[in-house]
């Protein structure tokens, strides 16, 4: 009897319908996304169409003035959005990585999460 009751409880959890919120309708799981939208239409167009390895020179960008941006291969992130890793190269700054993802209003600049291999446990 106990086994049957446990089975009913577990199966009822699978049949539960959850409310459809803004995150569901947006097609990804981040409903409080604080990513910064990219306002440059040329950069948005480049990110939309450029093949991997393409480079664009930007006098002004979200990563500072006078940088070259190399686009990585587009991929589908766990959030359900198309994203691209970027290499940012500037004469005044060291080379660094950036991450952009496509949202309803264009591309957004995401915070890059990196691993540290210098720390020992």
Helix and strand arrangement:
Layout: H1 2-14, H2 22-26, E1 36-37, H3 41-49, E2 55-58, E3 67-71, E4 75-76, E5 82-90, E6 96-103, E7 106-110
Antiparallel strand pairs: 1-7, 2-3, 3-5, 4-5, 5-6, 6-7
Task: List key phrases describing it.
121 residues, alpha+beta, 7-stranded antiparallel β-sheet, 3 helices, 22% helix
Description:
The protein is built from 3 helices and 7 strands. It is α+β, with helices and mostly antiparallel strands and 121 residues long. The chain has a domain of 77 residues. Strands 1, 2, 3, 4, 5, 6 and 7 form a 7-stranded antiparallel sheet that branches.
Number of helices: 3
Strand content: 25-35%
Q: What is the gyration radius calculated from CA atoms?
A: 21 Å
> Main beta sheet: strand number and arrangement?
7 strands, antiparallel
- For the terminal residues, how far apart are their CA atoms? 48 Å
Q: What spatial form do the alpha-carbon principal axes imply?
A: elongated
Compact summary:
This is Common-antigen outer membrane protein. The protein is an alpha+beta fold and 121 residues long.
């Amino acid at each position: 009897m106990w086994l049957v009751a446990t089975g009913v409880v577990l199966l009822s959890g699978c049949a539960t319908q959850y409310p459809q919120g803004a995150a569901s309708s947006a097609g990804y799981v981040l409903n409080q996304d604080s990513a910064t939208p990219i306002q440059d239409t040329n950069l948005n167009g480049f990110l939309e169409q450029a093949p991997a390895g393409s480079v664009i020179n930007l006098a002004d960008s979200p990563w500072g003035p006078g940088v070259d941006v190399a686009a990585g291969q587009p991929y589908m992130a766990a959030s359900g959005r198309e994203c691209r890793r970027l290499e940012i190269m500037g004469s005044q700054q060291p080379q660094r990585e950036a991450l952009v993802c496509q949202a309803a209003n264009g591309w957004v600049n995401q915070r890059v999460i990196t691993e540290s291999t210098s720390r020992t446990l």
